[in-house]
Amino acid sequence: MSLLSPAQPVEVDPFFGYDKTTTVIPNPEALVHKISQIAVEDLHIIADFDMTLTRHTLASGKRGSSTHVIVQNNKAFGDDFRQTSRSLFEKYYPVEIDDSISTEEKEPMMVEWWTAAHEIMVQAKLHKDQLTEIGSSPDLQLRERAKELFTLAQQLGIPFHVFSAGIRDVIVAAFEHWGVNKLGVHVVSNMMDWDDATGYLRGFTGELIHTLNKNSKALQGSPNWTAVEKRRAVLLLGDQPGDCSMTDGLDCTTIVRVGFLNDKVEERLELYRSLYDVILIGDQDLGYVIKLMRLLSGA
CA 20 to 30 Å from 222, out of 19, 44, 178, 208? Predict the structure, then answer.
């Protein structure tokens, strides 16, 4: 049961003592009500990966990299590959984050971007043996306290899905590098298809997942889906407006959405206030999410 169940009302500060200038809750009363409706045995977690579970800004001040960019920046590939990748980023990323462009207009451009990015990886002859090096890149870092979050979810028996428009093989390699690969986190993302004879990448398998089509269809195809299909409450973690659609099509009664607003705060805050129950501004650790889970579980 939640500590805030109607049978056991508990007065709680949903800010958990965090600074209200960097932890924004548009409607605290509505959030407390949502929490009161959740039983831990009915909860599962769906989280984005890039810039949600990973750091947006590194300790050096450098921007953290996505799983696609980590591959593209690998020194094993030539300048032409990196320049082409950079050109794709400069063309399509401004479209991805432009809130004035409709989803309907953006979606075909996101398909173009992802398809082109995947094709040049094939052309560059990416080899499976390079994944360990790619996954250990210092430009890809977990947010602080992520391992604690994964461990807590596993201890409480809460299924944890990472749902990413990135590259599953890179996420798995990074999890192994960080030592979190045995904490019960299931990854749903774009899967590389390797040539068994040569070890070279020959393409991607399954439906293409980009930032605007992450919804329940891909989740329902995961081997772990039977563990969550009857759970009616979701804790959603994301960093983009489109991440809020990760639960679209699920039979949910309660969704608590926590959004990480990493940059362009003044421009995007009002939009995020309309989408997320909690907005964490800047490159915060996962402490707030851990406190929320402990409240839900009584741990």
Answer: 178
Q: From the candidates 13, 19, 48, 243, which is the catalytic residue?
A: 48
Catalytic residue among 13, 42, 50, 129: 50
pLDDT for res 193:
97
Model confidence pLDDT, tens digit, residues 115-127: 999 999 999 999 9
* pLDDT, tens digit, 9 for 90 and up, residues 204-249: 998 899 988 887 777 776 777 777 888 999 999 999 998 998 998 8
Q: Which residues contact 7 (CB under 8 A, 6 or more apart)?
A: 1
50 is catalytic: yes
Beta-sheet strand order (sheet of 233-238): 23-24, 278-281, 254-261, 233-238, 43-47, 160-167, 185-194, 201-205
Active-site annotation holds for 48? yes
Is residue 79 classed as helix, strand or coil in its secondary structure?
A: helix
Q: Check pLDDT > 50 for residue 6.
A: no
Q: What is the CA radius of gyration of the chain?
A: 19
